[in-house]
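User: Um, what's this?
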Amino acid sequence: MSDKMNNYFNENSALDQIKGINIGEWLVLEKWMKQSIFDGLPSVDETTFCADQSLEEASRRLREHWDTFITEEDFAWIAAHGFNTVRIPVGYWIFGSASGYPYHPKFGDKPFPFVDGGIERLDRAFDWSEKYNLKILIDLHCAPGCQNAFDNGGIAGVFEWHTKQEYIDFTVLTLERLAQRYCTRKTLWGIETLNEPRWDIPDEILCDFNKRAYWAIRKHCSYEHCAVVFHDGFRGDRILDVFGALMRPPEYQNVILDAHRYQCFDDYFRSLDIEGHIAHVEGPLTKELKRLQSVYWTVVGEWSLGTGRGLNRSMEEMQLFYDAQIKAFKNVLGSFFWSYKIESGNQAWSLRDAVENGLKL
């Protein structure tokens, strides 16, 4: 990394160490995080939630959720507990039916099934962030056709984003619209081009998209004001080979790599005791983060206290795991815990519940 860029980052207060938290489940539904909103429906994601009932009923449920799940009090709590940045997931439908988002067969007979009004809630989040001195990373969590087949991509079991130019083009347009709307908000820290695009999207498609997304955002947001964040696409050790020569200074400025690092989604991690999890953090994870940071300024955009055993972990074990991860993340720009809260109160995933039950930040 050049001395010029090191000086830029050292002098840019927007890139101080991030102590961040995700506001998941608010503007993008994930059923596991709040099952009650899906009561009586066969739906498994936000697309089917909207398509499986009348627009009137979907609007009633979702607007009540938007206005109660996250309020100003939550932003006050986040700030009071030492966090300085929030990552807010949004879907490609954030601007509502007037945005003309592409049709998908999962919509059925509804050309525009999603509930309007999310963008006004995001506006409200910016008002609260200014009041409580919190930076915001807007994260485009869902793209048309879905970029990963996960429920967090908006349509579970569908993986088509990269197969239609219409889908990619609309994703770029949505990022530009977000940049245009929020470019003057002083608490805008960054815009993330796409959450968790899957590992088997062809490298050239993902690289081209990220370059287009960068310039779409830069039409409205200068590099001094707004970071452009891109996810590693689950490339693992290949990430630096895939992106190493791209998105670099001097042509590309204030670009940050997002690497999500959980320790609960495969048999290896589920087999570990707490000492094994901590050893992984202190060894392989720390080594990997240092390597990434040597090429790209990096954040860990999602992590948790999940180990595959959920609430079976004691608070003492969770504290040790939390402290080890926070120490490891000091090797990069910082991190965003997933998530601020979930309905069940599972302390491995709901940081507010964990703190209110004794976790020390």
Remarks:
- The two ends are 32 Å apart (CA to CA).
- Confidence is low (pLDDT under 50) at residues 1-14.
- DSSP finds twelve helices and eight strands in the chain.
- Residues 193 and 230 are 6 Å apart (CA to CA).
